[in-house]
Structure formats: C-alpha cells, structure tokens
Write a structure and sequence with these properties.
The complex is a heterotrimer of chains A (355), B (538) and C (307). Chain A is an all-alpha fold. Chain A contains 13 helices and two strands. The chains are: A mainly alpha (355), B alpha/beta (538), C mainly alpha (307).
Chain lengths: 355, 538, 307
C-alpha cells in the first residue's frame, strides 16, 4: 500500500469524506447498541430526540456545548501553533476556582458584593482567564526555556490542578454550609450569567463563546498575529528565519489558549453550577481537543463541532434512560468520530494505491 | 567546465582501461521502464544495459529522472511498466530486500545512516534475518575490517556515525553495500560532498572495485567526472533517454548539449575592478560560534566583503558553512567576535538582520526559506509583515500583499498557477526564484546566499547567477557559500575556504587553482596558493 | 529524620515500592518499544484501562489468572494495531491519534463494564494473584508473579534491543527509517510490530492493577499512570535498565508520600502528597530534557517513496 499526495483536494471529496466519517461512526456504534440488546433505530432516535427534539433538548445541548466550544477554541488556537495543550481540563478548573475566589474577594463582610456589578463581572471573568492562562504558561515556559515536551507536562498538570482545587475546597474555599461532599463557596448571585431563555439553562456564556469564535477566526485569518501563529505551527524553523519570534508567539498563544479554557470554567460556575465541585467537568478539556480536530482547527468549525459533541452527550443521557444503553456510548461515538474524521481528512489529501 | 586556471585533463588521463575486462557478461538490463507521478512523466520507456566490470555514467540535469530510475531499480518505487533483469534473471519489482539479495547496492545522495548507531551497527543492519536470536558481531567486524582494507575505505567500526565527517559517512555507505555482497553499485551524486582530492580517492576505490569485476552506475551532472570515471555514458533529459555512447567517444560539448537540449547562455561576470574605491559593507571579526545543530564550531572567522563584491566561501559541506550562514542571518548568538554591517554591530535575531537590510538565501529552501503550507503571497511578505505596505495596526493588507506578490512573480519569472497555492506546490527552481525576489527586494546592501543553486536545473541556475551578479553590479556585498566549485569560480571576486570551522584568508579568485582549493578544503590551509603554481596549471 | 530511617529499614516499605513500580515497569517498557521505533503512543492511558478491564473480566468469567493476563495483552495489542494503522500505515498526527485511542479504549471499557454490571454497589471481586511466598528472596517473596515477570522483561528487552538483529533494526528505525528501508527491511511492518508489542505490555500494565494490586475493576483506577510512563521513558533516555531505575525511583517517592500521609501527614493537606508523583514526573522531564537524545524520527511519519 502506498500513499500519493493529491495535487488539489476537491471540495466534493472533502464533503464525501465528512459524510463517510459520520456514516462509519454510526455503523460502528450501532454494533455496540445491538450488543446492549437495544433497537438501533430506537436508540439513535432517542439520542436525536434527546439532543434536538424539543426546545428543552436544544437548550440542554447548547448548555453542554458552551464549555466545549471554549475548550475547543483553546485547543484549536494552540494546535494551530503546534502547541499541544492537553491541559485544558486543569485550566478549566483553575478558571472556575478563580471566578469563585474573585467573587469571595469582592464581597464584603456581610457577604454582599462590594463593587458595582458592571465592574465586578468583568473582573471575575478576567480572573478566570488569567488563572487558566497562568497554568498553561508554566509548561510553555518549560518548553521555550528548557525544551521540555509540553504534551506530557500539560497532561500531568491536569492532575496537579485538580488536586490543588481539591485542596482549596477543603481549605479556604470550602463551602461552610455544605455537608460531606466537597464544594466551594457559592458565587454571589449578582455575578451569575443571565439565562437566555425561560426554564432553560442555556446562558450568556454561549454568546460569549460564539463571539470569541468569530473573533478568533478573524485574528487567525486576517491579522499579523494570526499569520505568525499559522507560520509557527506549519514550520517553526522557517518562521524563525522570516523574523517571527517563535517563543514569543508560543507564549502569546499559550496565554490565549489557557485563558479560553479558563473562561470555560468561569462559564460553568457563573452560568450553571454556582459552585466549584470536583466533578463539574466530565472531561470537557479533553473533548475540546476532539472538537478542535473535528473542526479541522477552524474556530468557526468549533462552534458546530461542539454542538455535535454536546448533542451526543445530552442525547446519550436521554437515550440511556429510555432504552438502557450505558451513557458511555456518547464517549465511544465521539472517539470513533474523531478517528474516522482524521482518516477521512487524510484520504482527501492522499490517494491510496494498493500496489 | 573550465575553471579558468586548471583543466581537468589530469582527471581524465587516469581513466581506467576497460578493455582488459570481459564485457560480454551483462550484469544488469533495464527494459522499457516507464514511471509517472500524477501528470509528471518521470521515466519514459528507458532501456539500458550494464556489463560486468563497466562503469555506466547516468548523466542528466536535476529532475531528468535519474534518481527515479535508480529508485525503481533498487525497489523503492515500482515502475508502471517495463522489467529489470540482473545477471539474466528477472527482478521482482518494489522489494529492496530482493534487489539487495541480487547484489544491487545503492549509495544514496542523502545518506541513509542511523546517526545514533556505530559504523558496525549500520553495516550489519538488515544483513541477518530479523528472527535470528543473536547478532554475529565478531564475524561482521572481521569482514568489515577486511573490506575496508581491501578497498582502501578506512573508517573505525566502533565510531558513532553522528561524529563522522561527510566523507567518512560516504565510505560507510559504500562499505554497507559491499558487506551485503553488492555486484552492482549505484552511486547517486557521490562527489558533491567531497574535495577534489577525495574525489580522486573515491575514483581509485571505484577502479579497484571494477578491476575485481564489480559494475558501477555513477549518477552525476558533472561532465568532467563522468568523462574521468565511466566507460559508458547514458544521458537522460525530461525522463527520456536521449543519448548513449562510449565514454571515449564523448566530449564535454556533446554531453552538455545532450543533457540540456539547447545551448546554455553562460553568465559572464564583469572583471573585478581593482581600481575602484572599496567600502566595506560586511565585516566579520574573529567570529566564534557553536550550536548543538552543528558538529563543528566556528572559530576565529574573519573576512570583509566590500560593496559590489562577491566573496565565495568554498568548502566541503558540514564544515561549518551552515553555522556561518545562520550566524550572519542572525539566527544564533555570537559567542565571541563581531559581525559589522556597514560599520554597525549586528544584534542577535533574524528580525534585526532583516531590518538591517541583509538579504538571506537559505541553504534549505523547502524547510527554512519558506513555510510550505502557507500560500505563495503569504510567504512573499512574511519577513516584512510589519511594514506599512503589508499591515496597519496588525491588520494585514491582503490586497497589497497580493499585488506585491504578483509584481514579484512577474519580475522574477516565477511559474505558478496561482499565488493562492501553498508554496510547497512550487518546483524547487520557482520557489528559489520567489525567495530570491523577496530577499533582493529593496536593494539590500548585504546578501548572504547559501548554496543558492543546489538542486536546480540549468535554466534556474543561470537565472540565480544573473540575479546575484545584478545585485553585485548594483553595489551589494555578497557572501556566496557554495560547494560547487564551478559556481565559485564563475561568480566570485575573492574566495575563502572553510574547513572544520576555520576560514582561510579570502584571496583573489585568480590566485586560486583547483589544486590549492582542494588542499585548503581538506584542511591544509597553510599551503599558500602561489601565483607560480596557478600559472603552471594554465 | 529518624522516621525516614525507620521507613527505609522497614521491609514492608520496599514491598510497597516494588508493587507500585510494577505497572510502571510494564508501561514504560511498552512506551519504550514504541518510541524506539519512532512512534509516540499516547494511547497508553486508555490501553491500560482496557487491559485492566479485559484481564479482570476474563478472570471473572472463570478463566485462569494467566489467561486474564494474556487477554489483557491481546486487547492491548489490538489497540496497538489500530494505533499503528492510523500513524504508521497512514501518516496521521501521533498526538491526536493517541489521544483518540485513549478516549476510545477508556469509553469502550466503561461502556462494556456498565453494560455487564448496570447497578452494583461494590465492584465485583475476583481471586487475584497471590504473593510468591515460596520464593527464598525476602522482598520479592511478598510480590505476585507479575512483578517477577516485569523484572525479567527488563533484561530480556535490553538483550533484544542491543544483541539481536531485530533490536538493531528497531533502534535504527526510530532514528532514520530510510536507513532501515535501504537495507531491505520493511519500515511499516517493523514499526507496526513494535507498536503492537509495546501496546500489549501496556495492556499487561493495566491488568496488574485488577489482577494483582486490587481485585476488582473500578472507574479512574489508572489515574494518569500511563502519562507518567510516557514521562519516565524520557527520563530513562529510552534505555530499559534506566527505565527500571526510573520506575523504582518514582515508586520510592510514591510509597514515601503514602507513608508520610499516614504517619505525620496531618499538618499538611493530603492533596500535596498526592501531587508529588506528578510534580516529580515533571521535574524528571525538566532534568532529562537538557540532554534528552530523542529518537530523531520520533513522531515523524514515514511515507514510502517520499523524502
């Protein structure tokens, strides 16, 4: 078997590859559903219903998609510069914790907000972004200063970050009213994000995420900074030769990526939970990488890919209640889709020759 | 090619006499080989035969299809049609291990050695069945020592390949083939990395091998060498076999014509004007520089380049030239010494070099000179994106960049289908033209050109030479780092030789002969190139 | 200080060190085989989860313990085959494909576990490996046969790497695949073999957790051990002997923090102790990075006929 580079991948081939990847994923996961003795069509129907079948379902999917969009953007911008940030999970928790800490810091002794909301709200958001950025700055500096591969360090920092948050939940950030289960103090109600619809959980964070996706798309495509990111990611040596400081670019990208992941945490606390708990993210950080890859690292694509993944998770939850297939099917679907999309996109770039 | 001072007749006179060897046995026969890559026809119905004890030279420009043909022979590629037989038996295509088993050995232009392993390990690699439970190191070591003595290929078996010089690495490559019992040895551009003296040594080894009954295929684009070593010559052009003859019937002129297919306009350098006042544009003072990417470090490198002058840095690759080019381009921190640009000390960083008006043509145009996945126009503006014509407040002026690129493409005759293409789709020559245009834009006062014509076809080579000479005429100070002595003699006003991180004094090109240059390249820098010697060689 | 000396004098402490080190030895050797061949395998975390599950399920279903180990190895090999299909046959990003494998293997294991055991309060138990009390060697006698297997594998893999033709080819292919191809060895098959073998070891590393360390399968039981192995290989400069050393060193600190946590640890939050292993891995990476002789072709896909 040999691979030959295709001169010009056609738009048709790209479309076909996408459709093929989806069909392949559905077929593979159908086998797992059959294994669970469930009706495949009923199960997929239930997933679809649960994800998009009603206004409530749609708002739930969008609520899920919000943190995924932000971690997806975090991965997309970092991977564009070939900075393998696999620590978005930890950065998310740092962002969430920082938001709560900011809320605590900005409250007076009576437990009320000491600043006007229009000042406190941006400060809280900034705190979360800074915390996420700071966490990613550590492995990035280790990379630029000591040439330590960032893949493993960002992975390991997830564990450290989670333990650190856990420590705070036992210590200064402990909710004095909570019994047993570790939980942070509650965010002040004034700092919570407004809901977008009645009786739905979808919140302003979604609009922020979409706006950031558009901004990021513009930055990457139309600005000098964006060109540096693309040049460094495509070929760091040549970028350096052309006068672009690779290290400075990587550090800027790290700050941006970490901030986006931190914002995902802010959004979860301010928009959904009001508290930090140790199970507030079911792996949003890792799913962000999948989403970025599904979107081919395009920020606008991230918006759609995160709705897809969010829908799969919400739909699978609903489906498992209805037809008794474990919810982990959602993760299997996402993982299979990732691999299928990777292979499919490769096949648009290469022609496989069997001789 | 005439070096001005030296003829290559001494090379030719030592040519082996093939008549003593029985030529009746056919070692290798290629029948009607064709191979396409997409729309490109790399090989078009090529048939060749090689007798036992013959040296067949395969001559052709870059891109003529020589390497493709040899990769088919060795099994890296499979031909679309045609067949190969070795000593009368058909060779199964696409299997290097079968080619090896039949006695075909190949010395690739880019060495295929594992740098982390010893010489012995590299030689033994693949010689035993992978399922054997024990490596036969003792026997292998004896055989290796035996071979290196027999053919004069001295190299220590336990040396780690990473620490070897380029010439030594080539010896390891040849030993690998001999160890596997090669009867037909293919050498792909073997002389491009050697000093003239080392070339002679290599030819000695080859003659020895031929005398023992081996056959050799010698791939080259250098006419002198082809005439010196081969018994048969085949010329490829654009994938076709266009000319075949015995070496003794061939002349340089006939071969050159067959190779290029038309008369080539030779660039003509205006004579060095010794009377004109010189203003030094680039001055390098006692430069010392080391970097992990380079086996050798620069020490005490000193030279000046005046405005309107080309100073060539000749030398065998891997002696610190890349480090020097990178240092002058601002990529490395200078350990000691100074680089003065128009009298001002250059600061670290590619940015500083670009802003100071240094044009840089890098050695590796694919991976350093351009970002392959970015479009042609993005690459064209990449070093100057901060200039007002390309961006305002970080916002890219895409229209301006495209218009600029269009103009560049026209002026420098870059052939492409669209400036929106990723630049990696361009041929080497066109990519080099674009880089040249980009770097020479704005009349830079200093030009650092590292191997600017490496791997280009004749047309592109003369274009690059013309542009460099234009820049010289305009008053630029040009450093030409080159391994190609033809190029050095054709362009340089003065020549210095780099060996093992040290640089000889830059002397007038007329003071050097091929011999003195070769000696300096081999590190005998104290050998003064006397005028007498030079005149004697004329 | 006296506590520390007492700890070092305590045989139980060293028993714990060796037990903690065992899965890391298997995992690190597995990563080493892959990376020597030039392939990064971030699938390890998920492969360990699946290996732990497959080994446990096989034994739970009534098969022998060694059959369970074999099942874990085969499961690991299967994921290794998938990974090599993606990154060796097809030149996909090794980072992303590896993470994809981790996600797939983990979610498949959890899916299957939940399918088989929908509502269990405590995880079903099996009869795990027993200590080798018959061995006359003090600390080793407290270990299960899997630890012995891990210790035997170290010199065995070292022998294969440095004393056999296939080991030579493996060391070469991670440095320069063209060197291997030009000597008539199939790069794709060699790399595929190495990734499959390495992944099988990762599967066994996971099985140790369910078949020797604990006696049941539960969620998050691998808990980053796979990533730690990836760090240890850099620390070990891709050498089996040093990999053993690194795993033992790491286990030493891990066991020590457990001790401290139990004895006088009340003064500090327990999370600080738990952080230590991960922090140490990062420190090890920083120390090793200065002189890290990465296999030159690591993460570089080989497309036949392209240069």
């Amino acid at each position: 078997m040999r691979l030959e580079v295709r001169a010009n991948p056609s738009a048709m081939a790209t479309l076909l590859a996408g459709v093929g990847a989806v069909v392949f994923t559905l077929l593979v996961c159908a086998l797992l559903i059959l294994w669970a003795n469930a009706n495949v069509f009923a199960a997929y129907g239930a997933i679809f219903q649960g994800a998009l079948g009603s206004q409530f379902a749609i708002t739930e999917t969008l609520t899920r998609a919000t943190p995924l969009m932000l971690t997806g953007l975090a991965a997309a911008v970092a991977f564009r510069a070939r900075l393998y940030n696999i620590g978005a999970e930890g950065q998310l928790y740092f962002g969430a914790m920082a938001a709560v800490a900011a809320s605590v810091a900005m409250s007076n002794e009576a437990g009320e907000l000491a600043l006007p909301t229009f000042i406190a709200m941006p400060l809280m958001i900034a705190a979360g972004a800074v915390a996420g950025a700071a966490l990613l700055l550590i492995p990035t500096l280790l990379k630029t200063r000591f040439k330590v591969d960032e893949v493993v360090t960002t992975l390991l920092l997830n564990f450290i970050a989670l333990l650190f948050v856990s420590m705070l939940l036992d210590g200064p950030m402990k909710d004095p009213t909570a019994m047993g289960w570790p939980q942070s103090r509650a965010l002040l109600p004034e700092l919570e994000f407004a809901k977008l619809v009645e009786r739905g959980r979808v919140h302003v964070g979604l609009l922020i995420a979409i706006a950031l996706a558009i901004v990021l798309w513009i930055v990457i495509g139309f600005t000098r900074f964006g060109l540096s990111i693309r040049a460094v990611g495509a070929n760091a040596k040549a970028a350096e030769f052309a006068g672009i400081s690779v290290n400075a670019t990587l550090i800027k990208v790290a700050l941006l990526s970490g901030a986006l992941a931190g914002l995902a945490g802010v959004g979860e606390v301010a928009g959904r939970t009001s508290y930090v708990t140790l199970d507030m993210s079911p792996g949003y950080g890792f799913s962000g990488i999948v989403i970025a890859m599904l979107a081919a690292l395009n920020p606008l694509g991230v918006v759609f890919a995160s709705v897809f993944v969010g829908g799969a998770i919400v739909g699978a939850d609903a489906m498992s209640r209805a037809v008794n297939v474990p919810t982990y099917i959602a993760d299997v679907i996402v993982a299979t889709a990732l691999i299928a999309v990777l292979v499919a996109s490769l096949l648009t770039k290469y022609r496989v020759r069997w001789k | 090619m005439n070096y001005g001072r030296t003829s290559s007749s001494d090379l030719q006179s030592k040519s082996s006499n093939p008549s003593e060897i029985n030529l009746a046995v056919t070692a290798l026969s290629l029948q009607h080989i064709s191979k396409r890559f997409g729309s490109l026809i790399a090989n078009d119905d090529i048939s060749l035969t090689l007798g036992r004890g013959e040296v067949l030279a395969l001559l052709g420009e870059n891109g003529a299809g020589k390497s493709t043909l040899m990769n088919i022979l060795f099994g890296h590629y499979v031909a679309d049609s045609g067949s190969i037989s070795v000593f009368g038996e058909t060779l199964v295509p696409g299997k290097p291990q079968l080619a090896l088993a039949r006695g075909i050995g190949m010395v690739h232009q880019h060495f295929t050695l594992a740098d982390n392993l010893s010489v012995l390990d590299n030689v033994m690699l693949g010689a035993q069945s992978l399922l054997s439970l024990r490596s036969q190191r003792t026997a292998a070591r004896e055989q290796l020592n035996d071979l290196s003595q027999r053919f004069g290929l001295t190299v220590s078996p336990d040396a780690v390949v990473r620490n070897l010089s380029v010439g030594e690495k080539q010896r390891v490559e040849i030993l690998k083939a001999l160890y596997r019992g090669a009867k037909i040895l293919i050498l792909d551009e073997p002389t491009s990395v050697l000093t003239p003296q080392e070339v002679e040594q290599l030819f000695g080894t080859l003659r020895h091998m031929v005398a023992e009954g081996l056959s050799v295929i010698f791939i080259s684009h250098k006419l002198d060498e082809v005439l010196a070593i081969s018994t048969q010559i085949a010329v490829l052009r654009q994938g076709r076999l266009v000319h075949e003859c015995a070496a003794r019937e061939a002349t340089k002129e006939s071969l050159a014509l067959a190779m290029v297919g038309r008369d080539v306009k030779r660039v003509q350098r205006a004579e060095t004007d010794h009377t004109a006042p010189k203003s030094v544009a680039l001055s390098v003072r006692s430069l010392a520089l080391a970097h992990e990417s380079s086996r050798v470090a620069l020490s005490n490198v000193t030279f000046d380049v005046a405005a309107g002058e080309i100073v060539a840095i000749a030398g065998v690759s891997g002696n610190g030239q890349r480090l020097l080019a990178d240092g002058l381009s601002g990529l490395h921190r200078v350990a000691t010494g100074q680089i003065l640009l128009n009298g001002r000390a250059q600061t670290m960083g590619a940015r500083a070099a670009i802003d100071a008006g240094v044009a840089r043509i890098p050695e590796d145009r694919q991976h350093v000179g351009a970002v392959g996945d970015l479009s042609v126009w993005e690459n064209a503006m990449l070093p100057r994106t901060h200039e007002a014509r390309f961006s305002k407040l970080s916002w890219l002026n895409r229209g301006g960049a495209r218009r600029y690129t269009d103009a560049l493409v026209k002026q420098f005759d870059v052939r492409l289908s669209s400036i929106e293409q990723p630049i990696r789709m361009l041929s080497g020559g066109n990519m080099q033209k674009l880089i040249l245009g980009r770097e020479l834009d704005g009349a830079p006062s200093v030009v650092i050109a590292a191997q600017p014509t490496w791997g280009l076809d004749v047309g592109a080579v003369s274009f690059v030479h013309e542009q460099l000479l234009n820049a010289r005429a305009r008053g630029a100070a040009i450093v030409l780092i080159s391994e190609d002595l033809d190029e050095v003699f054709a362009l340089a006003d003065r020549i210095a030789v780099m060996c093992n991180g040290r640089l000889t004094t830059a002397r007038d090109a007329t003071e050097w002969s091929l011999q003195s240059l070769g000696l300096a390249m081999a590190g005998h820098s104290d050998s003064q190139p006397s005028k007498l010697e030079a005149q004697h060689a004329t | 200080m006296t506590d520390f000396i007492a700890m070092l004098a305590d045989a139980d402490f060293w028993v714990a060190v060796l037990r903690i080190a065992t899965p890391l030895i298997f995992g690190t050797l597995g990563v080493l085989l892959c990376e020597r061949a030039g392939v990064l395998n971030l699938g390890i975390e998920g492969i360990m989860v699946f290996g732990a599950f497959a080994g446990w399920l096989t034994v739970y279903a009534g098969a022998g313990l060694w059959v369970g180990v074999l099942a874990a190895a085969l499961a690991g090999a299967a994921f290794g085959a998938l990974h090599s299909l993606l990154v060796v046959r097809l030149p996909l990003s090794q980072h992303v494909a590896g993470l994809g494998i981790t996600l797939l293997a983990t979610s498949l294991a959890y899916y299957a576990y939940r399918l088989g055991f929908p509502k269990v309060d405590s995880p079903p138990k099996i009869e795990a490996f027993q200590a080798m009390n018959w061995l006359p060697v003090p600390i080793l006698a407290e270990q299960t046969p899997l630890t012995l297997l891990a210790l035997v594998l170290v010199p065995l893999i070292a022998y294969v790497l440095y004393r056999t033709p296939i080991g030579l080819a493996l060391r070469a292919v991670g440095e320069n695949p063209h060197a291997v191809e030009s000597q008539g060895i199939d790069v794709i098959r060699l790399r595929t073999g190495a990734v499959i073998a390495g992944s099988a070891l990762m599967g066994v590393a996971g099985a140790f957790l369910t078949l020797a360390a604990f006696n049941s399968f539960f969620f998050n039981m691998v808990n980053g051990r796979g990533w730690i192995c990836v760090a240890l290989v850099v620390f070990a400069s891709w050498r089996p002997g040093k990999a053993l050393l690194g795993a033992l060193l790491f286990a030493f600190f891990d066991a020590a923090q457990l001790r401290l946590q139990q004895s006088g640890g009340g003064a500090l939050p327990y999370q600080l102790y738990l952080m230590l292993p991960y922090l140490l891995s990062i420190v090890a990476l920083v120390i090793a990075a200065r002189k890290a002789a990465y296999p030159q072709a690591l993460m570089q896909p080989y497309v036949k006929g392209a240069r």
